[in-house]
Amino acid sequence: MDTRRAFVGSLSTVALATSLFPGKALAKDPVPSFASVETIYGLGTSLSTLATKIETATPNMPSSAIVGLEVFAKDKDFYPTFARAYVVRYNGVSTGADSDGRVTAINNARSLILAAKAAIDFNEDRLIDEKVDKKKAAAFIRDAQKEVAKFLRDCQVKDDRIDSFVKSVL
Prior knowledge:
Layout: H1 2-20, H2 22-25, H3 34-55, H4 64-74, H5 78-91, H6 101-120, H7 134-154, H8 160-169
Helix pairs in contact: 3-4, 3-5, 3-7, 4-6, 5-6, 6-7, 7-8
C-alpha cells in the first residue's frame, strides 16, 4: 500500500511540475548538427567524383557513371524529401516547406543530375555515345554540386567539413 501511495504521489508531483513549468517539460528545439545533413553532404561530395567519371569515360563503353546515375534516377525524390524533412524539423515550417530556398536548391540539383543522365545515356543502352558532349554533362553535375553547396551553406550547421566543401564549390 505504501508503494502505491508513493507512486501516485510521484505522478501528481510530475503533473504539477509540468503544468507549472511547461517549457521545462518539453524538449528543447532541435539543433541541427552535421549528422542532420550528412546525407546531403555525401551527395555533394560524391558529385565531384561523378563529374570526373563522366569527363573521362570512354565512348561506347559501359561506365560506372551511368550506373550511379541510374541508381539516383530510381529514387529521384529521396534527396528533395530529405531536404523538406530537414526544413520542417529544424525550422518549424509545417506548410510551405517546398518553397524554402534550401528545398528548391536540392530540387534544382536533382533536375541537373537527371539532365546529365539524359544527356549521356539518351538511348538508355548504358553506353556513353561518341556524340555526347561529356563536358556539358559534367557541367550539369558540377552545377548540381553548387546547388547542394547552397543548401549546406544555408542550413546553418557549423562544421569544418561543410565550410570547406562550400568554399571549394561556390
